[in-house]
Specification:
The chain is of the alpha+beta class. The chain folds into three domains: about 160 residues, no CATH class; about 90 residues, Helix Hairpins (Orthogonal Bundle); about 150 residues, 2-Layer Sandwich (Heat Shock Protein 90), CATH 3.30.565.10. It is built from ten helices and twelve strands. The strands form three sheets. Strands 2-1-5-4-3 form a five-stranded mixed β-sheet. It has a five-stranded mixed β-sheet with strand order 7-9-10-12-11. The longest helix is centred in the middle third of the chain and has 56 residues. It is rod-shaped. The relative contact order is 0.06. The model has no long low-confidence stretch (mean pLDDT about 80).
């Protein structure tokens, strides 16, 4: 109950109403005290009229008049003459004097609080104006015990009334909030839970129904989000089905092409000049088809595993990559060079980074071979303040604008004819797994430069 929105709203409403009632209570008690003192002045003035009518009254009647007025003595000032009209023995010394002719709201509140929080009875003098201009002033002396008792009784009644008003107000507001806010919010939550059970089902998308503007805006935003998510899930499902079909086709096609690749070995041994001339083209075509199937199957697998981070020698890894590429280059006019300090140690997964460099160097080799000219591939690495930087540069023809636009997107960033563009997509995924970045730093008529940056430190949490 207390943890619910309506329960907390109920408590806050009660507290705020009580605070408001307390703010009303303080000036009300001060006003009650003023009225009480004015009433005592009026009673004292009425009692003094008996003496003014008859200068000689006995002692018993005088005490009865003072008792009915609730005071100890009465002083009137008429025609600039101060006259003690009624008097009785004083029980003590006057401790304070209050002049009601010159009062302010803060002063009344202060004096009322002093009386209310002072438990010991005190003897006070009160001065005011007589009713109907029956003199210049009237002054009485009285005890505060009865005054404080009346103020406490009045205050308790005010507080009880305030509590009742607070509870009634809070209950009505509680019911209104449940009706206007809590119920619509619970309805939205129910829709969200229902949608979460089957987000592909468009029938579960929320339909805005709230009459409250803010809630309706929230429902509309949620409807838009759920609609986009449902469409994205459907598209993802279709892509997954398509990917599965492509993987199955690629797998079978790879087996068929591998068998065909074996037959080309016999075709190359033929003595027929025309066969000898056409055989290399057939072999290259089959090799490209097998490579496409293999890269498609590799990309269609689950995400790359997390890298196993170890410290390794970068120069040795680069040597391994370039040695493998030299076998593939054969007699081509392509030179390989490296600029890696022999002592450079890098933290990463050496197997995955081998694949990164191998893909980049292979792409550079294929770009240069496509021109039919000689060229150079250069691999460099260095350590900066916060990252290791690896660069793979070539003197190829550079990348066309379309390839640069979709460079790291699978099936869209292919550069050479017949390529799938999966190589760079896989490289980018491996680099991201290390927390690094892969970018094309330069690509023009003088060649291309790819830059890999691997952070030295861990992520800060």
């Amino acid at each position: 109950m207390l943890n619910s929105l309506s329960g907390r709203f109920l408590i806050l409403t009660t507290v705020f109403v009580m605070i408001a009632e307390i703010l009303i209570f303080v000036p009300s008690v001060a006003r009650f005290r003023e009225d009480y003192l004015l009433d005592r002045l009026e009673r004292a003035q009425i009692a003094s009229l008996a003496l003014l009518a008859d200068d000689m009254i006995d002692r018993d009647l005088e005490e009865e008049l003072l008792l009915n007025a609730g005071v100890f003595n009465v002083v009137l000032r008429r025609d600039e003459a101060r006259q003690l009209v009624l008097s009785s023995p004083m029980p003590g010394v006057v401790s304070a004097t209050y002049d009601l002719r010159e009062t302010t709201a803060p002063g009344l509140i202060r004096d009322a609080m002093m009386v209310l929080f002072t438990r010991e009875p005190q003897l006070i003098r009160v001065i005011g104006n007589p009713l109907r201009d029956a003199g210049l002033l009237i002054e009485i002396t009285m005890d505060t015990a009865e005054l404080r008792g009346a103020m406490v009784d009045y205050g308790l009644r005010i507080l009880m009334l305030s509590l009742v008003i607070s509870v009634i107000t809070a209950v009505f507001l509680f019911l209104a909030v449940r009706r206007l806010l809590v119920k619509p919010i619970k309805s939205v939550v129910h829709h969200m839970l229902s949608y979460a059970q089957a987000p592909e089902d468009a029938r579960r998308i929320i339909k805005p129904t709230s009459s409250v503007r803010e809630l309706r805006e929230a429902e509309q935003a949620l409807q838009s989000l759920e609609t986009q998510l449902t469409q994205a899930l459907r598209q993802k499902e279709r892509l997954a089905q398509l990917g599965g079909a492509v993987a199955r086709v690629s797998h079978d096609l790879r087996n068929i092409l591998t068998s065909a690749q074996l037959f080309t070995d016999r075709i190359e041994a033929s003595e027929d000049p025309q066969v000898k001339r056409m055989a290399p083209k057939l072999v290259n075509s089959i090799t490209r088809a097998v490579s496409l199937c293999e890269t498609t199957l590799a990309f269609g697998k689950a995400e790359e595993p997390a890298p196993v981070m170890t410290l390794f020698n970068m120069a040795q890894l680069v040597d391994d990559v370039l040695d493998s590429e030299r076998l593939a280059i054969g007699d081509s006019d392509i030179s390989l060079s490296e600029d890696v300090p022999g002592s450079l140690m890098v933290r990463g997964d050496p197997e995955q980074l081998y694949r990164v460099l191998s893909n980049l160097v292979r792409n550079a080799r294929q770009a240069i071979l496509g021109t039919g000219k000689e060229g150079e591939i250069r691999v460099a690495a260095r350590a900066e303040d916060t990252a290791w930087v690896i660069e793979v540069a070539d003197t190829g023809p550079g990348l066309p604008p379309k390839a640069r636009e979709h460079l790291f997107q699978p099936f869209q960033g292919g550069v050479r004819k017949g390529g799938s563009g999966l190589g760079l997509a896989i490289v980018a995924e491996l680099v991201r797994g290390h927390g690094g970045t892969l970018k094309l730093a330069r690509s023009d008529a003088d060649g291309s430069l790819f830059e890999v940056r691997l952070p030295m430190g861990d992520l800060e949490h």
